[in-house]
Write a structure and sequence with these properties.
The structure is a homodimer. Chain A is α/β, with parallel strands linked by helices. The first copy, chain A, has 8 helices and 12 strands. Chain A is elongated. Chain A has 2 domains: about 170 residues, MoaB/Mog-like domain (Molybdenum Cofactor Biosythetic Enzyme, Chain A, 3-Layer(aba) Sandwich), CATH 3.40.980; about 90 residues, 2-Layer Sandwich (Alpha-Beta Plaits), CATH 3.30.70. In chain A, helix 2 crosses helix 3. The longest helix of chain A is centred in the last third of the chain and has 21 residues. In chain A, the strands form 3 sheets. Chain A has a 6-stranded mixed beta sheet, sandwiched between helices. In chain A, strands 10-11-9-12 form a 4-stranded antiparallel beta sheet. In chain A, strands 4-5 form a two-stranded antiparallel ribbon. At the A-B interface, helix 1, strand 2, helix 2, helix 5 and helix 7 of A face helix 1, strand 2, helix 2, helix 5 and helix 7 of B.
């Protein structure tokens, strides 16, 4: 399966910074919830948001996941804000139960008070009214969802009770979204995406995935290194998928993102073509090819 | 569906620190890989490891996910090590390709050199020999997988090529594991778990999950708060699962972890019984109950 001596054996200690618009807009996520840390719940929110952002030509630059714990939330929040991302999306912990303590943690980190927000309260009342629950008593558990850090703005959540929250703080815009996936996705689409898109501008991305067979990752590595040197703006990454019956399987991702659609697409296509040739010259085969372009 | 006035309306701003052995052994994960940040790959490694640790009576205290980027890896590593966890499990980026730069990032953060490790090299040679690939040329891509931070110890990886790595540094033991799930799980089970278990001691956990219907989370919240005040060592968390045909659905998790098996189990059972009574008195129903005890 493997040629005795791979034709390219060049230096591969390139260790270059990752491409993909790394400097343009920095978006981070802080995911809050013990269920994510004890294997109860897969963090599909980070996965979903990362994919949405990648389609826009952006990405999540870092995801931090912490426990339902005031000290941990406040400390992680402070650490992230020190990096001054353009956007910080905090997910989870906005609900009515004692474990929902995200807004208190954020207020502690910001050094501001939590206070009743009348607009948020209206949203919550409206939510119950719409559900046909009639006149609902505003118990402390419900008032809690309308109790926001000073300076925060509530954002409509048409998919659940707790409003999302927007907090501008210097260079960084902070969004706090509910953790229930339906609510997270709805509020992200409605309030987070448009603002990131405005800052990012229109970006184009071409993303090509190959399924390869018959070439080991260690044999392919120098060809990837060489291609990255020729195309420093491209993203090229191999994902080994195991060796079955002596045949190595790899998925190879190629992507180029840019403001210039034609340029980005042409470069991605060129890289794909060159990688395909390399794979074949190394004794491998391309079994499938999938492309996505926006 | 909802009583006009919930019988318990007490103060719920408890915001207590999370229970579950928070202080005993702190384990953190640093997951490296752009595929996790662009929605290409779900972080099943964090989910799996969190579940394994939870079964032992521990948990992941924090998960940090970063890009394949030297600066980001080194910076996240430094931030985590400042928190002095007992164990830091770094996952991903050990392979032969240019994007695999975890060990360089760790070496940078530690201020040590990367150097050829002869034991690691033997493991890699053995791996190729076992796969029947015969005499394999030690190209730079392959030597890279045997190039470790000074002071590191390679750990057998029987499921892939790149050895895992153990680096003791003061209070913290650092493990670097390959990111391919099969390899991550194998090396975690073989090398990480036994060492954490030795430090943690034998812990027992009872975990009970209820499926509830007919009670809103905001109605249940005060009862959870009250129960947590009575059982400060217990973990009680509700996961809203939406409202279908006017009926609210919730999953309620209850867990107690402790060295004393009988005590932990009895407390979890008592909490479950009391919560069940609360749910019924609030007009809800327990539709299903699942229990796990180790």
């Amino acid at each position: 399966m493997m040629p005795a001596s791979p034709p390219r054996g060049g230096q591969t200690f390139v260790l270059r910074p990752a491409a993909w618009l790394r400097a343009v807009v920095r978006v981070e996520m802080l995911a809050v919830g013990k269920e994510l840390l004890i294997g109860r719940t897969l963090n599909t929110n980070a996965h979903w948001a990362g994919k949405r952002l990648a389609r826009m030509g952006s990405m999540l630059r870092e995801v931090t996941t912490v426990d339902d714990d005031l000290v941990e939330i406040a400390s992680a929040f402070r650490t992230i804000v020190r990096r001054a991302p353009d956007f910080l999306v905090v997910v989870g912990g906005l609900g009515p139960t004692p474990d929902d303590m995200t807004l208190k943690g954020v207020a502690d980190a910001l050094g501001v008070e939590l206070k009743r927000n009348e607009a948020a309260l209206e949203m919550i009342k409206e939510h119950y009214a719409k559900r046909g629950l009639g006149k609902v008593e505003l118990t402390p558990s419900r008032l809690k969802m309308a109790t926001l850090p000073a300076g925060a703005e509530p954002l409509r959540n048409d998919w659940g009770t707790a409003p999302a929250v927007r907090i501008p703080m210097g260079k960084t815009v902070v969004f706090c979204l509910p953790g229930v996936p339906l609510e997270m996705r709805g509020t992200f689409r409605r309030s987070v995406e448009p603002e990131i898109r405005r800052k990012l501008g229109k970006m184009h991305r071409k993303y090509i995935t190959f399924k390869l067979e018959g070439v080991l990752e260690s044999v392919l590595a120098p060809a990837i290194g060489e291609e990255l040197r020729k195309h420093p703006g491209a993203y090229i990454k191999s994902h080994p998928r195991g060796i079955r019956e002596g045949v190595s399987r790899i998925e190879l991702d190629i992507a180029v993102v840019g403001e210039d659609k034609r340029g980005a697409f042409a470069e991605a296509d060129a890289v794909a073509k060159e990688m395909e040739k390399s794979v074949e010259s190394l004794g491998g085969r391309v079994k499938a090819r999938r492309a996505q372009g926006d």
